[in-house]
Write a structure and sequence with these properties.
Blueprint: E1 5-8, H1 12-22, E2 26-29, H2 35-40, E3 48-51, E4 61-64, E5 67-71, H3 76-80, H4 83-88, H5 90-96, H6 102-105, H7 110-116, H8 124-129, E6 133-138, E7 141-146, E8 151-153, E9 156-157, E10 164-171, E11 177-184, E12 195-203, E13 209-218, E14 225-226, H9 228-232, E15 237-238, H10 241-254, H11 265-287
The structure holds flavin-adenine dinucleotide.
Flavin-adenine dinucleotide (FAD) binds at residues 27-35, 37, 52, 58, 72, 98-100, 104, 107-109, 111-113, 115-116, 121-123, 164-165, 190.
Length: 291
């Protein structure tokens, strides 16, 4: 591996300056659980690894009436150990709890998962269904990018030279809302999703009618996919097995899977249907008050 500098940046400006100075030859490091593996594997040639964890803004976790501010490098364990966060953003907690094992979760961040922009990332779909926005800092200040539009190709995101992710902002869900995420993997843990499905729903006060729903899919396209038509199809509909089945059928249409060593396209389409039904059912249970 080509020798490179390790810099623990102290503030936002220092990160931006380093990224501008080194361009493609610098990488941010949050938990390092992707970027160190990639650097070792020779995926890119580095002059500088910019550790961002000493920048206070990227370690934030603030939850209030307006919603959640999740710093870009806040590790997964802080997400799933926060009971209030679990009660409001259960789908994000589902993902944080299954990324790697306990050692990985003590370092890895949802922000790093998002920046890495893997189609199979577990953390991105739950952010999408919660309408999260990525707040990016760069030479011209900060700007917001909806998480739906953040991943542009496998391993590529919407940030430009000198920019880095500061935090995700996730609005507070309406009353009677619930969310859930599940993936299929061939073993119990430490594997990449063959398919992942995230769902968020808002019900009416009686818990009988779906006011709105969002469904996102992992590992069935070049980027995580928001299955918009599938989610929208449920708006104003009663909670029935038939309506859940129709939404699952539309989620299958939104998927564009390939055959690879992890599974065939047909198996993946089948799994999208199964997991969408399961996650809709789980998110509805949670919206009705179940843990
Ligand atoms: C053993 C093992 C198991 C794993 N299991 C899973 C799993 O089950 N599910 C899953 O989805 N992933 C898994 N991963 C991948 C990885 O752990 C996750 O993607 C994790 O969330 C990455 O977070 P991180 O903070 O470590 O990111 P890093 O490795 O620090 O960064 C990831 C990428 O994002 C860039 N980056 C990081 N932060 C910023 C920022 N603020 N601004 C701009 N760019 C930034 C980095 O330069 C790098 O390209 C696993 C990895 C390992 C080694």
């Amino acid at each position: 591996m080509h020798p490179f500098q390790y810099v623990a940046a102290k503030d936002v400006q220092e990160v931006v300056s380093l990224l501008e100075q080194y361009g493609d030859r610098a990488r941010c490091m949050a938990g390092g659980t992707d970027v160190i593996v990639q650097a070792r594997g020779g995926r890119f040639d580095l002059d500088a690894m910019v550790d961002i964890k000493a920048v206070p803004e990227v370690m934030e976790l603030t939850l209030n009436g307006a919603g959640l501010r999740l710093g870009a490098a806040t590790p997964c364990y802080r997400v799933y150990e926060d009971d209030k966060l679990r009660a409001t953003y259960a789908g994000i907690v589902d993902a944080a709890s299954i990324i790697g094992g306990i050692q990985i979760q003590s370092r890895a961040s949802i922000g790093g998962n998002l920046c890495n922009a893997s189609p199979s990332a577990d953390g991105i779909g739950p952010l999408m269904v919660h309408n999260a926005v990525a707040v990016v800092a760069g030479p011209k200040g900060t700007r917001e990018v909806p998480v739906d539009a953040f991943c542009v190709a496998p391993g590529k995101n919407a940030m430009t030279k000198g920019e880095f992710l500061l935090r995700m902002e996730v609005p507070a869900p309406a009353a009677h809302s619930g969310s859930a995420y599940q993936r299929f993997i061939p073993r119990n843990e430490m594997d990449i999703a063959v398919v992942g499905v995230a769902v968020a729903v808002t019900l009416d006060a009686k818990g009988e009618t779906i006011q709105s729903a969002r469904i996102a899919l992992a590992a069935v396209g070049p980027t995580p996919i928001l299955a918009k038509a599938a989610g929208d199809s449920l708006a104003g509909k009663p909670v029935t097995p038939e309506n859940i089945q129709s939404a699952a059928d539309l989620a299958i249409v939104a998927a564009s899977p390939i055959d690879d060593m992890r599974g065939t396209a047909d198996q993946r389409r089948h799994l999208v249907g199964v997991l969408t039904k399961r996650m809709l059912t789980k998110a509805i249970e949670r919206a009705r008050g179940a843990a």
